[in-house]
Amino acid sequence: MTIAILSLVVGLLAVQRGPTTAVSGARISELVQAMLTGNDAQEARAIAEARGIFKSRGLPTIGEVGDEAAYSFIVLICTGERDVRATVLSKAKEAARRGQLPSDAVRYCEARIRLDDAIVQARGRAPTRPQLRDEIQRLFAADPTQYANLYDRSQRDAGRVQLYGQNLECSPQSPTLHRGPIEDEANVNVRRATIGLVRLELYERVVIDTTSLTCGSAAPGK
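Given the sequence above, the corresponding C-alpha cells read:
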C-alpha cells in the first residue's frame, strides 16, 4: 500500500513538472549549423527536429541552454513553416519578459513574420504588367541578407562604415577574414534582428567556417 501511494505521488509530481525532454545547447548549435549551411533536406530535418522539441517541451531558456543556444533555437523555429510562428512568438515574448530569452530573438521572429505577411498580401494583389510581376517575384525569392549585403558593400565601396556587418574584410594588420568597421556596433544585432538577420556573431562563424574564400579572394557575399 505504501509503495503504491509513493508511486502515485511521484507520478503526480512528474505531471505537475510537465515535459522533461532534454535538449542541449550543443545539439541546438548543430541544428542551426545544419539549417544555415546544409542542403534543403538537412535544413528541413533540422527545422522538423526543432519543432518537435518545441511541441514536447516548449522553448529552451537561457538558464537551461545558455544565451546563444536559446537565441539560436528561436532562429530555427521561426525560419520554418509560418503556421507555428505566431505561437512561438507569443511564448517567446512571455519568456523574454521574464528574462528567459534574449530580446533580439523576439525581434528576429517578429521580422520573419512581417516579411511573410507582406509577401502574402502582395501576392494577393499581383500586378498585371509582366515585367513588374516578374520583378516582384524576383524580390519574393530574395531575403533580407541580399539587401544587407548590397547596402554594406556599397557603403564600404564608398569608404563608409557598414550598417549590418555583412561584409567580412582583410587588412595588412589582420590577414584573415574579420569584422569590418560598423556604425554603432553596440546595436548592430538589434538592427539585424529588426530586418530578420541572425546575430552577427553567428553569421561570422558560419561564413568563416564554411567559406572557401580567403584574404586573397573576394569578400563573402553570403
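The longest helix spans residues 103-123. Try to locate this feature in the C-alpha cell string yourself.
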